Amino acid sequence: MPIKIPDQLPASDVLRQENIFVMSESRASTQEIRPLKVLILNLMPKKIETETQFLRLLSNSPLQVDVELLRIDNRPSKNTPTEHLDTFYRQFEMVKDRNFDGLIITGAPLGLVQFEDVLYWDHLQVIMNWAKDHVTSTMFVCWAAQAGLKLLYNLPKRTRKEKLSGVYVHSIHEQYNALLRGFDDTFLAPHSRYADFSPEYLSEHTDLDILATSDVAGVYLAATKDKRNVFVTGHPEYDSHTLHNEYVRDLGEGMDPAIPVNYYPNDNPDNAPTASWRSHGHLLFANWLNYCVYQRTPYDLEHFSEENFTKDD
Questions:
Q1: Which residue out of 237, 246, 280, 292 is catalytically annotated?
Q2: How does pLDDT run across 118-174, given as a tens digit for each residue?
Q3: What domain count does the chain have?
Q4: Catalytic annotation on 306?
Q5: What is the CATH number of the domain that holds 299?
Q6: Which of 60, 66, 126, 242 could covalently link to 282 via disulfide, CB atoms 3.0 to 4.6 Å apart?
Q7: What are the residue positions of the site described as Important for acyl-CoA specificity (predicted)?
Q8: Could you read off the pLDDT of 184-204 as tens digits, one per residue?
Q9: 235 catalytic, yes or no?
């Protein structure tokens, strides 16, 4: 959250140079507060597990957040009860005439599927295009990040020869970028994907700010300069056993998966894994809610304006 100090206090210039959000008394006196409206498009098969993971991250903020869950279509789910979907999830047609402060599009187990072969690809493009005029900031997670780069920058699908699975060390760039507020210089985050996000490739073909990278996993965090689109290529929402469950699943399907990197104690799958990424996962979502959504979204969601997306941090 911002700090409020007198307009002319000398410290304000120093803090702003460090890109720390300082709210002047004059601005604070006119600020209005309301709950944030955040929509989660859940593309994962185990929707109850995934929604719980994301809600946990969104809850670690002093901001009040009203969350609505969105499904991509009305096909029956093998992993989620129909009653749950009918009770708690909305179809796009039910929300398309409304505006939202934030949108999160989750990952999906489609790493080896070409975009044009994804059953709901056309519908997903409709939702992503809709977000340009109806959402203040959209976060694309894992596979959705690859899909978002295709839509916004027409980047072709790039696939690794082997699945990236494990917990990797990342380094931050642009220390004073708002999304990295409070981050350590290096941090851990889990990945589980075939998608390739090379820093060189993204730097050459997009105007994104590359904010965090790994020597092994590539780009972890990137954003458009107006912060209306944020790309997270890993899974900060994962529970401590999620990678383990995926590993066991792949073993059961005869896929001969590699043991997730830097995950099990002594690299032994018989040892219970422990989460080493929770603090930065919570911090990333708190920063996104505050600096990309709350500080930029209009008080009246019916009045979108480009001015809301060009404010200084």
A1: 237
A2: 999 999 999 999 999 999 999 999 999 999 999 999 999 999 999 999 999 999 999
A3: 1
A4: no
A5: 3.40.50.880
A6: 60
A7: 111
A8: 999 999 999 999 999 999 999
A9: yes
